[in-house]
Amino acid sequence: MEEEANGNENYYSRMKRRVEGIKVVLSMVMVHIAVAGMTVLYKISADRGMSLRVLIAYRYIFGATVLCPLAFCLERYTHTV
Description:
Layout: H1 2-47, H2 52-74
């Protein structure tokens, strides 16, 4: 019975390591997909006559509105003195 519990523990620890490795790869793939989609949208917008200055301003505004609340929530309890 003890060997069976030990085997299950080893199985779960191996699966945990595999899932951690898969998380890294999937997050990298998702970032690349997002960058490719953004590039396609930039190309379409530029071809239809949108000013590149306005497009870049929208990019920075959107990035700030997404990342600032995320940073405030994730870094709320970390204090550096």
